[in-house]
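RECORD TYPE: inverse folding
INPUT: structure tokens
STRUCTURE:
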């Protein structure tokens, strides 16, 4: 008869109540860290906003069932979006280019009209 006991560090941690809670807490914090990085990248100029968010969601999905369901839903939506973009490449390219141009115009307007300084001044 073969030994069916799972091996590895995760099953050993889950064996005790404290270890299970500790594992969930660590996974929650590490996933939240990557999601926070992705959210910070939304407001800072630069690409690669989604990869940290998706990585954080993946990390959460290793321990939480709700995150696994959300990850699967995001994967399906991403696959559908990719297929739609492949069916209509010109439309997808125009939409992407329009979005990039709007971001560039927004950044230039913020710099040109000192919008951040005016908002900070208005807030006190």
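DESIGNED SEQUENCE:
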């Amino acid at each position: 008869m073969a030994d069916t006991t799972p091996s590895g560090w995760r099953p050993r941690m889950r064996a005790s109540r404290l270890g299970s809670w500790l594992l969930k807490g660590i996974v929650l914090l590490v996933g939240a860290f990557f999601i926070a990085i992705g959210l910070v990248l939304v407001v800072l100029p630069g690409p690669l906003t989604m990869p940290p968010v998706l990585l954080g969601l993946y990390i959460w999905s290793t321990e939480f069932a709700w995150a696994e369901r959300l990850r699967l839903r995001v994967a399906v939506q991403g696959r559908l979006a990719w297929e739609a973009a492949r069916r209509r490449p010109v439309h997808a390219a125009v939409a992407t280019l329009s979005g990039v141009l709007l971001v560039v115009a927004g950044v230039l307007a913020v710099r040109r009209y000192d919008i951040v300084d005016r908002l900070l001044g208005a807030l006190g």
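NOTES: The radius of gyration is 21 Å.
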